[in-house]
C-alpha cells in the first residue's frame, strides 16, 4: 500500500542464431501508471552497457504511455526492437572507461552501507551478491566480523538503486525451514555521495575480520572512519 509492487519477467528474444534471455524487473509505485515504473535489465548474453541502453529505451517508451497501463506494451516493444537497440549500444569498453574516470549519469559516484541480520545459505548468498556487483559495475566490500555483516558499495547512483531493488525483491536466502526467501532483515545505514577524501575501491571483495579493530582499520584505510564511528559500534549493542 505504501511501496507499490515489484515483479520479474523473463523473456527470450531470437537474435540471429541465438536466443537472448532478458531478465526484466519492474517496480510499480503506488501511483502507477501516473508515475513511471522503475526498471532493471539484466542478461548474461549482453554487456552491462547494452543492458543500460535497453533500460533507457524502455523508459523512453514508458513516457509515451504515461497514465495508462504500459508493462505489456513495453515487453512487446523490446521484443520487436531489441536488435536495433543492441546495434546502437556503446561498447562495453566505453562504459568501463566512464566508471574508472568517476563519471556518472546522476550526481557523481555514490556510496551505500548496508547491514544484514544474518545469512543462512551463506555460499549461495555471497555468490549472488558478487554477481550483482559485477553486473552493475559496483565496487566495495562484503564484510563479516562475528555476527556483524556489512555491505559497502560504491558506484553510479542509478546502479546502486538497482542493486537495492534486487536486494529487497530477490530470493537470496533460505528461512528456518530451508525454503527460499527474500531478504527482510536489511538496514540501509548510509547512502551518500563519495567525497574527495574517500578512497575509491577498485573491485568488490569478500573479507572476514577477527576483531573490531581489524574492521575499523578497513574503514580508516578507505578514509571512512567517520562512517565507521557513526554506524558500526551501535550494531554491537
TrEMBL record:
UniProt xrefs under Pfam families: RWD (PF05773)
Alphabetized SMART domains for the sequence: RWD
Subcellular location: Cytoplasm; Nucleus
Family matches, as PROSITE patterns: RWD
GO term, biological process aspect, one: positive regulation of hypoxia-inducible factor-1alpha signaling pathway
Span of domain RWD: 1-85
GO cellular component term of the entry, any: cytoplasm
UniProt-listed InterPro entries: RWD_dom (IPR006575), RWDD3 (IPR038840), UBQ-conjugating_enzyme/RWD (IPR016135)
Domain of life: Eukaryota
Statement: the UniProt record of this protein carries the keyword Kinase: no
Keywords per UniProt: Cytoplasm, Nucleus
Segments crossing the lipid bilayer: none
Protein name (Swiss-Prot/TrEMBL): RWD domain-containing protein 3
Amino acid at each position: 500500500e505504501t511501496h507499490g509492487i515489484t515483479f520479474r519477467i523473463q523473456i527470450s528474444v531470437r537474435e540471429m542464431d541465438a536466443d537472448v534471455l532478458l531478465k526484466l524487473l519492474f517496480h510499480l509505485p503506488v501511483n502507477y501508471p501516473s508515475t513511471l515504473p522503475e526498471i532493471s535489465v539484466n542478461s548474461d548474453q549482453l554487456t552491462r552497457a547494452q543492458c543500460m541502453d535497453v533500460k533507457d529505451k524502455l523508459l523512453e517508451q514508458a513516457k509515451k504511455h504515461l497514465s495508462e497501463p504500459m508493462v505489456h506494451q513495453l515487453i512487446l516493444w523490446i521484443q520487436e526492437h531489441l536488435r536495433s537497440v543492441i546495434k546502437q549500444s556503446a561498447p562495453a569498453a566505453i562504459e568501463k572507461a566512464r566508471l574508472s574516470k568517476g563519471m556518472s549519469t546522476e550526481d557523481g559516484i555514490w556510496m551505500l552501507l548496508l547491514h544484514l541480520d544474518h545469512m543462512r545459505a551463506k555460499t549461495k548468498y555471497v555468490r549472488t551478491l558478487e554477481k550483482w556487483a559485477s553486473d552493475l559495475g559496483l565496487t566495495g566490500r562484503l564484510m563479516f566480523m562475528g555476527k556483524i555483516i556489512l555491505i559497502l558499495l560504491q558506484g553510479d547512483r542509478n546502479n546502486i538503486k538497482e542493486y537495492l531493488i534486487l536486494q529487497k525483491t530477490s530470493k537470496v536466502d533460505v528461512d528456518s525451514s530451508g525454503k527460499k526467501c527474500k531478504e527482510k532483515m536489511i538496514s540501509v545505514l548510509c547512502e551518500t555521495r563519495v567525497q574527495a577524501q574517500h578512497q575509491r575501491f577498485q573491485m568488490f571483495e569478500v573479507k572476514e575480520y577477527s576483531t573490531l579493530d581489524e574492521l575499523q582499520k578497513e574503514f580508516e584505510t578507505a578514509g571512512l572512519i567517520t562512517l565507521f564511528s557513526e554506524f558500526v559500534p551501535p550494531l554491537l549493542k
